[in-house]
Amino acid sequence: MAKITIRDVAREAGVSISTVSNALNDVDVLNPATKQHVLEVAERLNYVPNLNGKMLKSGKTMMLGFFTTSVSGPYFYKLIETMSRQCERHGYGLNVFVTKDKQVIMSNILGRRVDGVIIYEELKIDEHDIEIMQKDKIKAVFLDRAFSNDTMGSVTFDSYAAGYEAAKYLIGLGHKRIAYISGVDTMFDSVRRRDGYLAALKEYGLPFDGDYVIQGYFEEDSTFNAIKAFIRMHASKLPTAFLAGNDLSAMGCIQALKAHGYEVPGDVSVVGFDDIDIAQYFSPPLTTVRNPIARQAILTVDHLVRMIQGKEEGQSQTLTGELIVRASSHVPVD
Amino acid sequence: MAKITIRDVAREAGVSISTVSNALNDVDVLNPATKQHVLEVAERLNYVPNLNGKMLKSGKTMMLGFFTTSVSGPYFYKLIETMSRQCERHGYGLNVFVTKDKQVIMSNILGRRVDGVIIYEELKIDEHDIEIMQKDKIKAVFLDRAFSNDTMGSVTFDSYAAGYEAAKYLIGLGHKRIAYISGVDTMFDSVRRRDGYLAALKEYGLPFDGDYVIQGYFEEDSTFNAIKAFIRMHASKLPTAFLAGNDLSAMGCIQALKAHGYEVPGDVSVVGFDDIDIAQYFSPPLTTVRNPIARQAILTVDHLVRMIQGKEEGQSQTLTGELIVRASSHVPVD
DNA sequence: CCTTTTTATAAAAACGTTTTTATGAATTTA
DNA sequence: TAAATTCATAAAAACGTTTTTATAAAAAGG
């Protein structure tokens, strides 16, 4: 028994396929009795429209694509879950593509597998790609850069300001030796937070030591290992504070410090970024710069949907963090 | 400038559209010079095939769908990342649908948006849905139940055995009062681990106290709060061990115990499930039953692809955990 | 009561591909 | 060298829809 098509429904109901289509799509031109009858037949035959036919003809997939290099960690699942829910609210589905293969990304975008795209590709999509997308009037929202033109916008965090604020806060407490735990340099948020941190150091006349930027990959376990290595190298004179690129790093850092017998914040202060759900329950509860992730997710989807509907041009929106002071930071001891 | 189609390429190259199609799809029937010329023209025009047309005609989307109720936590991102990579290896893309709306799920599956589906829907898809899918010869792999027929298989963990083993291990250490921290009852893994735990209790003649099953929702922070409440209620006579439904719960439980001044494993033992990446770096490192998540991901994708290729019928595969003893468990003190 | 308008439905075209079939030229076979 | 085969390409059909256009019947208008 082959797949039931609209043709089968039409034959069974004794009407034309256009009538079936109209009945199914609530186009108000039919005799109510006919419509009712068609719907009953469709139901009885368990008819489900083929989406590929639908998409081809209508030019709409009712899907948004999220292209990302990673789904690891609380940032992403909060983002994905919130975006999904918001998509559903607009009648769209969310398609998550986890890949770093630009070819895959571009052919899916330009091949119209989705009606609009959300991009978090750590800048792998370059000027030239954007130009190509623009020619095709692709609707897009970038999360990995501030950018806008008529069909593309962005919703980003002001990570530079966040880094600056966090560093300023620690400096204000009296810290003089502050290390930064970075991700890799392709992570724009990591880089911008670091730049903000550097700017604060400079502004307050603190020296910058290249050794004091530690690669933690934005992950808890990687940071744990990196900090253990760092402590072994710098045991004689440890920083009095660590500014971790995200909360996961902060947590890994604290675990490593504890494993070496240091108290947080007694001996060393640690500050993170994001304010992920666990941050407040961690021991000690984390001082961090809160990122409104859910807000970013909602603004992104809403903006994209409005662009698709032609109600809005692309715009670049910036979200600012909020310093949340908890127990992991303190005035320095020495 | 409207979207470039295969027709435009054909006209520009002075050949028929079938020739263009053959050139692009490496069908070896063309004069190499013609093929070369067509490819050059396509390249010059920045032609990208419309996937909807392609999918409709060929009946293949080259996409697998992962339908899940959640993407939260290390289990899911390990699963999704590994599945994505494995899909790419087979030339497929992975489509992640995060939704609990059965209607959405079924219309995407039956509407052929994807060539095969991976299902983790906490049993929301029932017998009847499966019957419908079977009529359409949908290729599927279930992660949330053991099941198989000619076009559908499953790859699951033997959570019952894992729960049994973990409980037996604690009993063997001498623990008599062991609490279980569950997810919600729709989480099959939670339920089966609990059942294994109950079976072990029974086998070794330990009494079961209904109060000793605590709802932690498989999340770190929820468990943290639940255990704090539990401690307040049972401060006079605490269990000597907690068996947490997953590692996140174990971590939340340990944090709560610490917050109340209990030592782990000095005063109380805690055992988890999964062996997520952080488990070994946690303080104390977690005793846990390791789930081969990456293996599950790879087996799932491979099985699904082989079913799509018609090389294999559905089969039900079961993975077994491995008890990893670390520092969070110990013989009881009283 | 004949013409015009409205209503309900059917027929046909279209979306952009792939695939099947047809065509004509070049090559081989007998 | 006429017939058969192979090769290269073109033409046409098909995938399952939606949308546009056509048609016939019913209702309204003068």
TrEMBL record, chains A, B:
Gene3D superfamilies: 3.40.50.2300, lambda repressor-like DNA-binding domains. Pfam families: LacI (PF00356), Peripla_BP_3 (PF13377). Keywords: DNA-binding, Transcription, Transcription regulation. The keyword Transcription regulation applies. CDD domains: HTH_LacI, PBP1_LacI_sugar_binding-like. Residues 4-58 form the HTH lacI-type domain. SMART domains: HTH_LACI (SM00354). The keyword Heme does not apply. PANTHER family: HTH-TYPE TRANSCRIPTIONAL REGULATOR GALS, LACI-RELATED TRANSCRIPTIONAL REPRESSOR. This is HTH-type transcriptional repressor ExuR. It comes from Saccharibacillus endophyticus. The gene is exuR.
